Amino acid sequence: MSTTTPAPTRALSFSRTTATAARVLRQLRHDPRTIALMLLVPCLMLFLLRYVFDGSPHVFDNIGASLLGIFPLITMFLVTSIATLRERTSGTLERLLAMPLGKGDLIAGYALAFGTVAIVQSALATGLAVWILGLDVTGSPWLLLLVALLDALLGTALGLFVSAFAASEFQAVQFMPAVIFPQLLLCGLFAVRDTMHPVLEAVSDVLPMSYAVDGMNEVLRHTDITTAFVRDTAIVAGCALLVLTLGAATLKRRTA
After folding, report:
1. Which helix (DSSP H) or strand (DSSP E) does residue 28 occupy?
2. Residue 114 and residue 149 in contact, taking contact as beta carbons nearer than 8 Å
């Protein structure tokens, strides 16, 4: 009869973390479809969005920055949750936890690997939106890139976390309506948050995607870094770190 026991607690090690990240990146290198999903889909969505509103370019300017943060979050959530679940169901995760590898090393390694991909993804999407599709941004494009990267890292953290509660890849995808769609509806993309019903506004105030959209809008409207921008990016980064910590707590090893 098998029982579930926590993995041993070990101090975080830079060498073990980077070794884990290198292993994940090697696996991704042999999966071109996943790489295409992570790197090209956000760019394709932005490209389509630009020409959907070809007759009203101001609409693209108003919502393009927000979606520049939302698209990477969604794609990184999907890819990370499914990739991590494969490791859980194949037994790879259990074998790794039986080695001198702490839970923190494992989660940090996954976050580092997918975070590296997120940097490339965010750079491609931001460059496409600003320099090719003509997104009109008042602030620095580098600040857009920063928020897009934080959003992608948040998606990575959420994907790592929810993979613990899914028994199959299909179930991992099913978490998207529960985790992503409510945030998408309440983040301020479709309606200004302070015009929503008070209950929904209160819910939106605790959802990290709301602050991701707010941060993008700060760059869209202001030349300099504002206090609100610093607050928004700090909240997104803090939520990503919190979810990563919770993800480490869900790692368990089955022993006979």
Report:
1. helix 14-29
2. no
Q: Which amino acid is at 91?
A: G
State the CB neighbour count (10 A cutoff) for residue 25. Answer: 15
Q: Which amino acid would we find at residue 118?
A: A
Q: What does the alpha-carbon distance between residue 248 and residue 246 come to, in Å, rounded to a whole number?
A: 5
d(CA 256, CA 249): 21
Contact in structure between 232 and 214 (CB atoms under 8 Å) = yes
Which residues are 255's β-sheet partners?
Answer: 3
Cite the DSSP H helix spans in 128-206: 141-162, 169-179, 181-186, 198-204
Query: What does pTM read for this prediction?
Result: 0.84
Helix (H, G, I), strand (E, B) or coil at 4: strand
pLDDT digits (tens, 9 = 90+) for 225-237: 999 999 999 999 9
For residues 144 and 127, give the distance between their C-alpha atoms in angstroms, rounded to a whole number: 10
Q: What totals of helices (H) and strands (E) does the chain contain, helices first?
A: 11, 2
DSSP alpha helix (H) spans, 91-131: 92-97, 103-127
User: Could you read off the pLDDT of 122-157 as tens digits, one per residue?
Assistant: 889 889 998 999 888 888 889 988 998 898 889 888
Please give the Cα distance from 125 to 144 (Å, whole number). Answer: 10
Kind and range of the H or E element at 195? none
Say if residue 112's pLDDT is above 90: no
pLDDT digits (tens, 9 = 90+) for 205-215: 999 999 999 99
Scan for tokens 């869209």, then name that residue.
Answer: 220
Helix, coil or strand: residue 251: coil
Of the candidates 55, 52, 98, the one whose C-alpha atom is nearest the C-alpha of residue 254 is 98
